Amino acid sequence: MTREQLEHAIRAACDVVGDHEVYVFGSQSILGQFPEVPATLKMSAEADISPRHRLDRVEYLNTIGEDSPFHQAHGFYVHGLPITEAATLPAGWEERTVTVRANETSTGLCLEGHDLAASKLVAFRDKDREFVLTLLAEEFLSSTTLVERVWRLPVAQAERERMARWVHLSVQEL
Question: Is the pLDDT assigned to residue 123 strictly greater than 90?
Fold first, then answer.
């Protein structure tokens, strides 16, 4: 997905749910802060999006979801999910979102890179660790700030310790 495609997804999502703001919180939210990331970070065709004010309409996003006419026409799609149910995020993430104005009536509030990376480490899947490693290796993220965000996650202390240790060890190997 490109930054232009992300903006298109934001406009479409806002139109479908009748909301002027949406949260963008999956891997492609990185395009909000860093429009030009390595191609390996832009491989996903899906934008995880949640309405900000009209959460009662999140299921409407299925009309522009996977295998929809929208997906077939544009080559990317929106995965509509309530952000609070789909992502575990560090305290204060809302104040750090990156605003993407897709047009005069559609705004995407994308996760800030460190918040996104911390959320990816909660899932701790291979693809998520690779995503975070690439962000660290390409110096889009600071390991110090990432560890600070890990400590702000609403997860067990042992989980935060494991994630912080992984960041420290990974940075040493870069």
Answer: yes
